């Protein structure tokens, strides 16, 4: 089974509010986007955004250049259905971030909550970092959230990596300046607690 088939099957079996990483609103991510003080015409990409509600909240904040990327067409279809006519204001991309060609220097803000920790092989992580370097504008912002050191070792039937904030930053290297980081205890829809670590950086000018 391919990765795309795995995630499509998951979204066929479960509703968007039944997956373990679901939150009604990504409050911490929104705080960091607010902290960046971006104009409402800034280009923001939500990597692995799938059926997440982040795009809804950014539309509510009048951001007008939003892109959602996910490997699962089923997840994106769920989000488009939820948004209705507002979905036309969003660019939707189906593909693997480590192999998809994104617009060069096309984004002011890169957001990823829970994709990076699925990249268990170093070559895949290197391709991810290359994609970020190519897609972000000089001085662009990036938030990557992964399972923390005390987080689960598996998610949705797949093994994952776990990171501290410094370890996340270390994957990206000196071209990225760490601005802040924090830990969040996320409660899954089933009531379990999971440790997430957020690392917020800015790419060099």
UniProtKB/TrEMBL annotation:
GO terms for molecular function: methyltransferase activity. Coiled coil: none annotated. InterPro entries: Methyltransf_25, SAM-dependent_MTases_sf. Residues 44-140 form the Methyltransferase domain. One of its GO terms (biological process) is methylation. Keywords: Methyltransferase, Transferase. This is Class I SAM-dependent methyltransferase. It comes from Eiseniibacteriota bacterium. Transmembrane segments: none annotated. Pfam families: Methyltransf_25.
């Amino acid at each position: 089974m391919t990765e795309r088939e795995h995630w499509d099957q998951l979204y066929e079996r479960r509703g968007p509010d039944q997956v373990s990483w679901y939150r009604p609103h990504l409050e911490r991510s929104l705080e960091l986007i607010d902290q960046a003080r971006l104009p409402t015409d800034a280009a923001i990409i939500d990597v692995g955004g799938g059926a997440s509600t982040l795009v809804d909240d950014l539309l509510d904040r009048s951001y007008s250049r939003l892109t959602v990327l996910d490997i699962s067409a089923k997840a994106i279809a769920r989000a488009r259905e939820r948004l209705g006519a507002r979905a036309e204001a969003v660019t939707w991309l189906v593909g693997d971030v480590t192999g998809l060609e994104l617009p060069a220097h096309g984004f002011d803000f890169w957001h990823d909550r829970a994709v990076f920790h699925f990249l268990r092989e170093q070559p895949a992580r290197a391709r991810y970092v290359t994609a970020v370097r190519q897609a972000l504008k000089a001085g662009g912002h990036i938030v990557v959230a992964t399972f923390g050191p005390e987080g689960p070792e598996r998610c949705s039937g797949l093994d994952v990596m776990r990171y501290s904030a410094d370890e996340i930053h270390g994957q990206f290297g000196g071209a990225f300046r760490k601005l802040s980081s924090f830990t969040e205890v996320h409660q899954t829809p089933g009531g379990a607690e999971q440790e997430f670590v957020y690392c917020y950086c800015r790419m060099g000018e």
